[in-house]
Amino acid sequence: MSSDFSPALTDGARQLHLELSPVQQQLLLDYLALLHKWNRAYNLTAVRDPAQMLNRHLLDSLSIASLVQGQRVLDVGTGPGLPGIPLAILFPERQFELLDSNGKKTRFLIEARAQLGLRNVEVHCDRVEALCDERGFDAITSRAFASLADMAQGCEHLLAPGGKMFAMKGLYPEQELSQLPKRFIVETCHTLSVPGVDEARHLLVISPRTGEPAASEQ
To answer: How high is the pLDDT of residue 145?
Structure first.
């Protein structure tokens, strides 16, 4: 299957202004093949067609590559590793930790990490509220994981000083923004264009307001 989708991946990456090394290209295609194989048995994603998986999962994940900053990245509600695994392949020098409470999905993540040799990836099977990390994360990503308010409040304790949350959304989430607690600020909203996906895509960058007490201190 890998060779069939190589031209589409190359073209999609080019449209996203990303340069993939031959190793990165192959790892992304191997991940796609592994996801397609496991999905038939374990129903990891509603997208069945591998061509659609390439656009709606791989390229969708890579569309935020130039916008997510930070050395330590936590991907919350990662499911089968989206956007965490594609980003970990693209940035082998950065640390990615993948969090999901679904054991079926985290078993797939552990297998994918082993088969792809991703030494910069760790997997956690837990709820975000229960995860502890003393260092904190520079960036926390989510892809349709929860409402903006739930993400911000649930992940707040995991942010390093100066850390930011990167929430991937479809349509511009006007109602969700109105429900975001006042102690958080939306720094920017990026409109994304994903090759092969004719649907709205947005990335919202959220951080705690400087000087605001955390929820646990109020």
So the answer is: 83
